[in-house]
Amino acid sequence: MTAQSLLTTLLPLVADLSRELPEGERYRRLLQAMRALLPCDAAALLRLDGESLVPLAVDGLSADTLGRRFKVSEHPRFAVLLSSPGPTRFDSDSELPDPYDGLVDGLHGHLEVHDCMGCPLFVDDRPWGLLTLDALDTERFERVELDALQAFASLAAATVNVAERIERLALRAEDEHQRAEIYRQASGQQHKEMIGQSKTHKRLVEEINLVGGSDLTVLITGETGVGKELVAQAIHAASPRADKPLISLNCAALPETLVESELFGHVRGAFTGALNERRGKFELANGGTLFLDEVGELSLTVQAKLLRVLQSGQLQRLGSDKEHQVDVRLIAATNRDLAEEVRNGRYRADFYHRLSVYPLQVPALRERGRDVLLLAGFFLEQNRSRMGLGSLRLTSDAQAALLAYNWPGNVRELEHLIGRSALKALGNCRERPKILSLSAQDLDLPDVSAPVIEAQAETAAVVTGDLRQATEHYQRQVISACLERHQHNWASAARELGLDRANLSRMAKRLALK
Asked: Sigma-54 factor interaction domain spans which residues (predicted)?
């Protein structure tokens, strides 16, 4: 490694410091430059977030790595790197497990990493994260290259420092954040991260940040399992009420006789079993946010009483004449088409309009492209830790199966699938493996190719005739399949097809589907 080659590699990164670049692009260029300087099979930049390391950029590792969250206490190599003041190279025969075993991209049989080195990054004299390099061959890295890595790490720290400062300019004051974090910890609420990089996901995050800063009532809609509660938590965290409580109530989990008591509270003797006075969810959420999940399940009677509280901010506990004033921001969620419920007389129009001041649609998992791999990585790391495995990975055919599947149960279905498949795959092993690979066969997803081929064959048979008939036949197939996926929810189907609901209704009538 010559001083000239080091200078040639670092100069473009120095120039990048003064340029406006997206954070992801800035980090990607950083890793590419490092691999040019120190040839390796994989490199990663990880940020220390509490007790875990979060991958911000990877080069040469599987896509799902970006969704993983590595607990430092469970990965001794990371712990060694973070405790060192400078670069560290592990011996090729080190007995410490490598966190990237099985994650180097494009491998099928040779899965274990044999040469590894890394360096901590410090920002404002505090540990910020790690740079790691891995090779599949033994003795790939030389001791002398540690000096080059140290020089590179200094510039990398400057790069992340620039990105951090840009990010801090866009965040609210640090003391507000700290107060919110203290409250979350005291109340037992843990912040859950929203994982994704697709355009659809980024648009959702932008909307969350936009409406979060307001006090508007939000109606979150979307299919079962898309993460509506997670979106509600993110809206609250982005609001001026973030340091106040977020209180949740699942309206479908309670019998109607108890919903009013849960919402408004009760006094002693209000009903059989009411032995003590009790505050309801509205009073508990005073000053903060109340999240009503499955709000489409509320009866017309409860809707009328809720409407009064939302309009006046005043409520009465069951069995009491005393008025209580509350200041609550309401977020509601449903997988029902409430506009359709209103038209059918099953939902109050005035209550619906009071809820949907700011409607927010959460996209289905099938609309988020390769986000499924990032989410899979998150759940894989969770299960790896829970099952005490060295590595839990997806084979290339398993990744392809995840991308091809339609996900009617969305993120919740993916989470359950990863946990179930990992457990079954481990049960099929005669000896406990160091690296457990999940194949498409382990995932046991429905074969998506068969119905597609069948539909193509049917369409091809019709195409031999009249073009207009063939087109209409194909439209019937697409619309019918979409309606089946959405349990004949016309509004949801229209969104997936990119049509206005009224246009879809007219088209369905023309095609004799309605």
From this structure: 194-423
DSSP letter at 59?
E
Domain that holds residue 235: 199-361
- Total domains present in the chain: 4
Residue 339: give its domain's CATH number: 3.40.50.300
Torsion over CA: 180, 181, 182, 185 (sign): positive
In tens, the pLDDT along 125-144 reads 888 899 898 888 777 776 65
Tokens of 491: 């509004």
Confidence of residue 5 (pLDDT cuts 50, 70, 90): low
What is the model's pLDDT at position 180? Answer: 44
- Return the bridge partners of 52, or none: 49, 71
* pLDDT tens, position by position, 185-211: 444 445 578 999 999 999 999 999 999
pLDDT at 108 over 80: no
Q: Quote the percentage of the chain above a pLDDT of 90.
A: 41
Inter-residue contact 229 to 341 (CB < 8 Å): no
> Looking at 114-123, 269-278, 371-380, which range is the least confident one?
269-278
Q: What whole-number distance in Å separates Cα of residue 492 and Cα of residue 344? A: 17
User: Residues near 221 by Cβ (< 8 Å), separated by ≥ 6?
Assistant: 228, 333, 334, 335, 338, 359, 360, 361, 362
DSSP-assigned letter for residue 66:
G
Q: What region, left, alpha or beta, does residue 289 occupy, with left being phi > 0 and alpha being psi -120 to 50 degrees?
A: beta
pLDDT of residue 274: 60
Structural tokens at position 13:
């990164």
Considering the domain architecture, whether residues 31 and 57 belong to the same structural domain is answered as yes
For the stretch 353-399, pLDDT in tens is 999 999 999 999 999 999 999 999 999 999 999 999 999 999 999 99
Q: Is 176:242 a contact under the CB 8 Å cutoff?
A: yes
- Strand order from edge to edge, sheet including 329-334: 246-250, 289-293, 329-334, 218-221, 358-361
Residue 513 has pLDDT above 70, yes or no: yes
> In terms of C-beta density within 10 A (0-12 exposed, 13-18 middle, 19 or more buried), how is residue 325 classed?
exposed
Residue in the structure block whose two tokens are 């009073």: 283
Domain CATH for 498: 1.10.10
The residue count of the chain comes to 514
Q: How far apart are CA 209 and CA 213, in angstroms?
A: 7
Between CA 89 and CA 132 the distance in angstroms is 10
Of the residues 306, 337, 361, the one at which a domain ends: 361
